[in-house]
Amino acid sequence: MSMAVYFLVVLHGRKRRHKDELKVHLEDEQELRERTPSFMGIELDMSVEYSYDELARGTNNFSMENKIGSGGFGVVFYAELRGEKTAIKKMDVQSAREFIAEFNVLTRVYHVNLVRLIGFCIKGHLFLIYEFIQNGNLSEHLRRTKRPPLSWASRVQIALDSARGLEYIHEHTVPVYVHRDVKSPNILIDMNFHAKVADFGLAKLTDVGGIASRTRLVGTFGYMPPEYAQYGDVSSKVDVYAFGVVLYELISAKKAIFKTGPLGTETLGLVGLFEGILNQPEPIEELRKVIDPRLGDNYPTDDIFKLAMLGKACTQENPESRPNMRSVVVSLIMLSLSSSKWDARLIDEDKTLVKLMSGRR
């Protein structure tokens, strides 16, 4: 049984955006160094400390009515704190590694397509406080039938927003990071159907240029590339592969690994499904069969094919054959322009049909 970990936080100033050193003292410092070797010397930036009493009041003592989600590293509660709507992730001290990783990333980076860290609290548990994104996550929108189906244009916009967030942490931060858990539940959707990448608890520092390093295996099966699942090799191309799986989800609304076969007892991954389709000489008709049925006929076939081919490029077995996120963003910008034009034509056609049906010209 591991020794209990106790935190003593010393803060010098509490103004947001003011950088101060967060020092942690433990009963067994060596244990912390082994579990979280990069923890010491974290600086506070764009973050503020909250008291436990504030969090307890805001969540009605962490009541089930305020619970809005849960995951491998904690439970998430809704609260209004200091006049702002927030989401509070409550984590056990055993999740110190993930707490540190997420805190370390989100206090150093800011981008419109990354979820914003508002603050933290350490008392009995570990708490991270984020901006509240009101419209759920991508997985819910794709697979919960009570939600209206996402339009094709919205799907492309969500892909573009997510790609921009990942490109930022891969290429525009010092140091650069690999997310390591890119998946549809970690892509949050706001009320304007723009996306923010969330959950940096598995994020890892990497060398500039995304050079591979080896590490323990974490993440979600179905989104892991072969070099990571087999050898633990980590580079920015790990995120690129997982993002390709998300692109397949946007097209099909299927899970990364799903049940198949006559009795639903076999499993198949989206990468295998789409590879089998896209490697055919004439893939379009087979591709139509796996498009999310909730889209109906409201999609441009050419653009769906282009998005599928981008997904295929991202999920190449050889990481060196995958594009970087900058190239992915450029491809999605072009696809977004094309899809927006198609969407506008569809709206114009609907307006014309309404006029004809009503006898107006």
Automatic annotation (TrEMBL):
Record-linked SMART domains: S_TKc (SM00220)
Entry keyword Repeat: no
Keyword Transferase assigned: yes
One CC-aspect GO term: plasma membrane
An example Gene Ontology molecular-function term: transmembrane receptor protein kinase activity
Primary location: membrane
Subcellular localization(s) per the UniProt record: Cell membrane
Single biological process term from Gene Ontology: innate immune response
Topological relation to the membrane, as annotated: Single-pass membrane protein
Keywords of this entry: ATP-binding, Cell membrane, Disulfide bond, Kinase, Membrane, Nucleotide-binding, Serine/threonine-protein kinase, Signal, Transferase, Transmembrane, Transmembrane helix
Pfam family, one: PK_Tyr_Ser-Thr
Xref: SUPFAM superfamilies: Protein kinase-like (PK-like)
Residue span, Protein kinase domain: 62-335
Family annotation (InterPro entries): CERK1/LYK3-like, Kinase-like_dom_sf, Prot_kinase_dom, Protein_kinase_ATP_BS, Ser-Thr/Tyr_kinase_cat_dom, Ser/Thr_kinase_AS
Binding site for ATP: 90
Family indicated by similarity: Belongs to the protein kinase superfamily.
PANTHER family the UniProt entry points to: CHITIN ELICITOR RECEPTOR KINASE 1, CHITIN ELICITOR RECEPTOR KINASE 1-RELATED
Designated name of the protein: Protein kinase family protein
Organism per entry: Zostera marina
